[in-house]
Queue: 3 jobs
Job 1
Amino acid sequence: MRDLKVLQSRGREVHTAWSGMEVHRTFYFEPYEAFEEVTLILQGRTEAGADPTWTRFLPAKDPYFPTLFCNEIRVSLTDPRLALSTSPDLEVGNAADGNPIVTILDKLETHHESPGEGYAGGFITAIYRPLITARITGLEAEKFDWMDAKFNPVFKQIPWPTGLKTFVALDSLSAEARAALAAGAVGLIGGAALLVVLAQGGVDATIPPELADTITVPIFEFTIRRLLVHTPPFDAIAWCAGKLNSVDAPFPGTTLPDFAADTLRFDGAEIEGRLDALGNQWFEIIYHFSWLNMLSHDVFGLDGLPIDRAPVTWNHVFMRPSFLGISLSEIGWWPVVRNTDLRIFDVGIPNLLNGPATGGALYNTANFLDLFRIPQ
């Protein structure tokens, strides 16, 4: 790289629209060969340190709009006389005579523009665009990262749980139906359970197929984009995949929503390589999440007690717990845990001898800040 000797501002344009805004700043610089240095300063770069550490040099931000950063550059020469004719004339040599064969492709790939005296500079147009940025607290050293958050609201239809029953009031049945039910009651349900059901004025029946797929759950497909990442955190990505946020507000110090614990699931990442002006590689990463953003009055805790207006999490299942065909509680969103001792899925049911359910969560949790740490 050539040392930069002159850098002058020559113009500024601001473009605004409903879809966003851009700022175009024009600079004159000398010598022209210093364009690599100016480009790296404007667009930012990364540098490797002792493995596994690396450093990010941030791109230039606009002096008037601090949320706009330079992410595109256009360079032009100031000498209109520059042409490929300044290189040696095209000639066809004879390899046997030791004369090189110069082709048009050779000239295109090897020619370096050398401005003539008095025309030693160039113009750079730096384009600044807004990036939603956030300062992430709690990290050891690097506190800055891009968080171009995008939310895509979708709605997922889920079926009723297998074996769920509906309660049919006896007074809604005809006299013939009640008589048939009473005649075959013992075979239909069995013994004491039938007496309890009849005493309550109704009978359980299986949910009919036409009522399947009627539970609508709002899910936001949510992505975060990271730029200027020298080394992707492959270990953190593998560890967090398929896990949930372990705490409320997993991204403290940012403008992102305060996701309730267990409502944000990490679904993986897209990683694409990029090159700077000198050919050094860095990576752009897009993290994918699924946010279960739903509040309900029918949420139950592991103690089996209802929680008013609570968030439904990925560790809840819509069901009505039952034992040997007898319903034990209300229908709603119940937490499901893995009972590693019995190797079964367990639900917290109130008033049972063994108390609330214990064991590991249906989904494990992780600290999502590990996805953003820069090793120092």
Job 2
Amino acid sequence: MNTKPNPLKRSAISFILCIILMLFQSCYSVRLVNTKGIPEPDINNEFGFYKDKKFTVIDTTISLKLPQNEFSLLEKCPSGGFYSIEYRVTLGGAILSGLTLGKKRKVKVKYVCLQN
């Protein structure tokens, strides 16, 4: 009995797996910018919006206890203010939050401080 794998079935499964992997990479971000401030400079940075700006990244997973519904991240800038704050949500983070009923949240925040 010769049982060869069906190439059409194998390619369909591969296609579905590729689509699922691409969905896990999808995301959105929200950026708030202070239009009257001057960002802290960094001449070595050549990265899109953050070109010539010194930025800090917080990439962590927050675990909440049963009675908690929210969390706070407290960060300080030496100058006392923020030039920009970007909050990013990925599909993987949204799925993690959904599967844990909101008790684990993946947080990615990127911020730029004001110049002294």
Job 3
Amino acid sequence: MSISIFTSYSLALIGGMPGWLEITVLLIIGLLIFGKRLPEVGKNVGKSIVEFKKGIKGIGDEIDEEAERSKDDDQSSQAELPPAKMTPDPAKESDEVKHNLED
């Protein structure tokens, strides 16, 4: 019985947004570990986030360019196809089939 209470409590800690107590504890740990270097660490984290966003935007732009390029390729390949020389006549085909069946 105590195991199920422990697992439900540990799962409750994992899920959801952190509360004020958790944020305060993390800030205190950050102050203890980084101390005077905390502004420098914050600046580096900010730069990392900006670079990450630029990378994500670059990937999105490449995907959009590739999609447009493939759309243009499809349109140009359809334009290069020669027109059909003749259209099939269903009445003539049915006559040929009947003739082959009679033989």
